[in-house]
């Protein structure tokens, strides 16, 4: 499967490589070229150059080089087709596929992502609408946890109303699309219902930044499981292969060659508030081989920042095997008993950063 050659050529020619790269590192014009710190490795003296005329970049430090497509592939760990698709979408360029069935499949994914994106906006507006009294307990709970309006906006946090079908009525989509997106289901009478109700929602994004799922937390006084996540039956989501926050963490991971793995959505948010932008979390499941495979594409050092008494520690016995298979070094952050990364990051960010930076190799 591939993309028609003429469309690839057009994407290369019409992509603004300076605009693309300055989303990841600052560039300064020097003569006919642009120069800045390399986004692919740590350096203090700029050795990364970009030639806007021929649309190519080169780093004299690590020898990274290529065009706009190659840059996006490297910075986001994408395959060739995905990189071309992303650039085409950014530049409003329609693309054609050599395999029509594959084209249909990718267009189907795009449709479902757009549906989830609409749900993200719907739930977020329900949370931040101060006239919406239904969401007041959720806003108060988030405020108690230290999550102000700026954090809610940054992470697109939302609120699912205590209603059977408020989202369904808003979206007005077919039964097939509702189920495929993971946003709802069909009852025995054939009616549509929302999958999430009366919960704080944390949107889950793919590493490319596409909204694909939700993690829903109940309020402390409510009944039911603490967390409810989008079902694996959704067509565009697999919890065993998805890491919450990787879309935000990948840039710092590329610079530091390191990722910090936590267990929960609020832990990742805490990492960000403490300035540790390379934090990610599993989505309601234990760390899996597929998670490690994905992380190894972005960094070769992984710090485990799990609660000392949590089920997350169960992954430890598999670490040695994963280290050798994926050429990854695992370290362990020595968190205080009874404290999770999110709470510590908010209460004592300096101590949290110190613990992360002093993490010891797992084998020690």
Please render the helix and strand layout as text.
Layout: H1 5-14, H2 17-21, E1 27-30, E2 33-36, E3 48-51, E4 56-59, E5 65-67, H3 68-76, H4 80-90, H5 100-128, H6 136-144, H7 149-154, E6 158-160, H8 166-171, H9 175-180, E7 184-186, E8 192-194, E9 199-205, E10 211-217, E11 227-229, E12 243-244, H10 246-256, E13 258-262, H11 265-273, E14 279-282, H12 289-296, E15 301-304, H13 316-326, E16 329-332, H14 341-347, H15 349-357, E17 360-361
Parallel strand pairs: 13-14, 13-15, 15-16
Antiparallel strand pairs: 1-2, 2-3, 3-4, 4-5, 6-9, 7-8, 9-10, 10-11, 12-14, 16-17
Helix pairs in contact: 3-4, 11-14, 14-15
Descriptive overview:
The radius of gyration is 22 Å and the shape is globular. It has helices spanning 5-14, 17-21, 68-76, 80-90, 100-128, 136-144, 149-154, 166-171, 175-180, 246-256, 265-273, 289-296, 316-326, 341-347, 349-357, and strands at residues 27-30, 33-36, 48-51, 56-59, 65-67, 158-160, 184-186, 192-194, 199-205, 211-217, 227-229, 243-244, 258-262, 279-282, 301-304, 329-332, 360-361. A hairpin with a 2-residue loop joins strand 1 (27-30) and strand 2. Strands 12-14-13-15-16-17 form a 6-stranded mixed beta sheet, sandwiched between helices. The chain is built from 15 helices and 17 strands. Helix 3 crosses helix 4 (80-90) and helix 14 (341-347) packs across helix 15. It has 364 residues and is α+β, with helices and mostly antiparallel strands.
């Amino acid at each position: 499967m591939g993309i028609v050659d003429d469309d690839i050529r057009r994407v290369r020619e019409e992509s603004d490589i300076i605009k693309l790269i300055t989303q990841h590192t600052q560039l300064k014009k020097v003569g006919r070229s642009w120069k800045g710190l390399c986004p692919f490795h740590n350096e203090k003296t700029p050795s990364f150059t970009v030639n806007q005329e021929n649309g190519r970049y080169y780093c004299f430090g690590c020898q990274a080089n290529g065009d706009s497509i190659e840059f996006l592939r490297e910075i986001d760990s994408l395959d060739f087709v995905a990189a071309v698709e992303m650039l085409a979408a950014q530049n409003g360029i329609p693309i054609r596929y050599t395999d029509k069935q594959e084209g249909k499949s990718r267009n189907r994914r795009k449709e479902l992502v757009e549906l989830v994106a609409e749900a993200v906006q719907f739930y977020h507006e329900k949370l931040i609408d101060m006239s919406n009294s239904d969401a007041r307990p959720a806003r108060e709970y988030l405020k108690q946890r230290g999550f102000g309006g700026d954090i809610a906006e940054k992470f697109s946090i939302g609120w699912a109303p205590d209603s059977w079908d408020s989202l369904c009525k808003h979206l007005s989509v077919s039964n097939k699309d509702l189920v495929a997106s993971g946003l709802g289901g069909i009852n025995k009478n054939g009616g549509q219902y929302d999958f999430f109700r009366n919960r704080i929602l944390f949107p889950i994004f793919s590493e490319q930044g596409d909204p694909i799922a939700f993690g829903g937390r109940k309020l402390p006084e409510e009944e039911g499981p603490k967390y409810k996540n989008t079902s694996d039956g959704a067509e565009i989501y697999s919890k065993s292969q998805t890491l919450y926050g990787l879309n935000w963490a990948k840039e710092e991971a590329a610079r530091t060659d390191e990722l910090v793995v936590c267990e929960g959505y609020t832990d990742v948010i805490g990492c960000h508030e403490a300035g540790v932008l390379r934090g990610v979390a599993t989505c309601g499941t234990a760390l899996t081989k597929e998670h490690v495979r994905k992380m190894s594409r972005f960094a070769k050092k992984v710090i485990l920042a799990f609660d000392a008494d949590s089920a997350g520690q169960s992954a430890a016995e598999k670490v040695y095997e994963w280290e050798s298979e994926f050429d990854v070094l695992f370290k362990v952050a020595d968190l205080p008993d009874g404290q999770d990364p999110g709470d510590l990051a908010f209460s004592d960010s300096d101590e949290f950063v110190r613990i992360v930076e002093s993490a010891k190799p797992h084998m020690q």
